[in-house]
Amino acid sequence: MSQCINPNCIYPNPPGTKFCQSCGNKILLDDRYLPIKFLGEGGFGRTFQAIDEKRFNTPCVIKQFLPQQAGSTALQKATELFQQEGKRLQELGKHSQIPDLFAFFPQDGRLYLVQEFIDGQNLLQELETQGKLKEAQIRNILIELLPVLQFIHDNKVIHRDIKPENIIRSTNGTLFLIDFGVSKETSGSILTKLGTITGTPGYAPPEQFRGMVYPNSDLYSLAVTCIRLLTGHFPQNDGSDPLFDTSRMQWTWQKYVSLSQELTNILVKMLQDTPVNRYQSAKDIVNVLAAAENQKNVVISTTQTPQKPVYNNTLKQTFQSNTNTNIPPTSSFIQDLGNGVFLEMIAIPGGTFMMGSPNNEAERSSDESPQHQVTVPSFFMGKYPLTQAQYQAIIGSNPSYFKGNNRPVENVSWDDAVAFCQKLSQKTGKNYQLPSEAQWEYACRAGTTTPFYFGETITTDLVNYDGNYPYRSAPKGEYRQQTTDVGSFPPNAFGLYDMHGNVWEWCADDWHKNYINAPVDGRAWNSGSNYKLMRCGSQITPAGDCRSANRAGNLHDNRSKNIGFRVRVTHLKITNS
């Protein structure tokens, strides 16, 4: 359908109609953007889903602004302010989790923005369809959105309308922050001068309704958003609010949900009425979350067998330790890559393990022999395979075939991966490198001796591989035929994700046909060959290729949509970078 955008009409027309059959209003905007669906109305104006006829009918969103002032002078002033806001949104759109701005223009006495259309559900729709969220889901929301808020605040913009409806989870799982219609520059308002509202009652902090706003006003609104998603209750301002006792002026949300003390403390501080008593920046909360994670030390000993939760009723996983150390890891850290993108590095404690596979392991190859003891000093490993957003933040481009900010970067050669490490090292002053093969297997096993860190076998509920080719007695499963967002499956005991499947991962070593004369101290094994080593298996490989001991090789300059990498750091003195 074609959608009339006349505020007094909004008439649905047959597909492709250029002039409304009801009021005669011209429908096509800027001779290219065709509204097809009315999405909603707010203080700034109206929003429509549309297509760009000059861009292969690419989906987009049109925002129609309706200045409250009348007259040509008022319209001219509104247009000037609108153009300023367009430039601001264009800058914000550079962030991978904020919709791109395609165009902004006046037409027929009204003002229009055209932005990227994000296909997915907002968090309110997710709450209504899936029910209340769990603590782990809320933590992930905070971890994913706080860097976005830090980015907009660093660009001297305050969103002022954080709420579940303005957070969209795209079809690939990435969270997007939308609707900057009531945003404000810290140096002065823009769209607010057009007569827009100042936020949503229930979510906005007290100072916002007194005409004051600060960066941590957004943090207050984000906390209220989290509480609604946790409890299912909506914040009210009429005295009947189940989340807030107006007679005592106290939040009462904690009686509706049981959380860890750590997350409770974070939300309580974000919700302080007085801005000075809240966290002063989004990055402050990121650091608190990271510090709390660092305290959850993983201890692997020879006398205890930590139990892995059962993620599939047909598959029971047990971790079996074979390391000779019970030394916990030192502090993990988060590396700021700029533009709201962060890299999480997990501390891996040093220890000794048996590298390679035993002779009785199913589907093993001779290149996994001889099994030998290796002692690995402590180091830091990327929590996930490197993502496309992280790669682009450093290199400035994204070569991946399966696009998605939180999907692993692929289509990168060994040379590309090394170049990334070198550039990241120059930027941060830390020595980032590809992990050695021994470091990779040690980190993957996380104290286990079984073929997978899940146990004797895997299913596609646990790993992204070709489910048509299961391992041993496991049932056939899903074949996704594409990569998945990092962290979509359970981690190992070290807290590392996707060490089985999704993408092959380059290691620092050259390929060798067996382990005869291999180093036993954890260092990379190089002999000047152009044939480099890979680990992990991928989304198109059989389950057996995802085993902890499985190895593969490829030319140093080969690129494939199934090959990525992760990074490591050794001998690190952590600084506040």
Structural class: alpha+beta
Distance between the termini: 52 Å
Poorly predicted parts: 185-197, 296-330, 572-577
The DSSP helix count reads 9
Number of distinct beta strands: 26
**Proportion of beta-strand residues:** 15-25%
Helix content: 10-25%
Overall spatial form: globular
> What value does the Rg take, in angstroms?
26 Å
Q: What number is the mean pLDDT? A: 82
Biggest sheet strand order reads 3-4-5-7-6
- Let me know the largest β-sheet: 5 strands, antiparallel
What does this structure look like?
This protein is an alpha+beta fold. The protein is built from nine helices and 26 strands. The chain has helices at 72-92, 123-130, 135-154, 215-231, 261-270, 282-294, 388-395, 414-428, 437-445; strands spanning 2-3, 12-13, 33-42, 45-52, 58-65, 101-107, 110-116, 120-122, 157-158, 167-170, 175-177, 184-185, 188-189, 244-245, 250-251, 333-338, 341-348, 351-355, 372-376, 379-382, 432-433, 504-510, 531-535, 552-555, 563-564, 568-569. Strands 3-4-5-7-6 form a five-stranded antiparallel sheet, covered by helices on one side. A hairpin with a 4-residue loop joins strand 14 and strand 15. Helix 3 (135-154) runs antiparallel to helix 6 (282-294). It is globular, with a radius of gyration of 26 Å. The two termini are 52 Å apart.
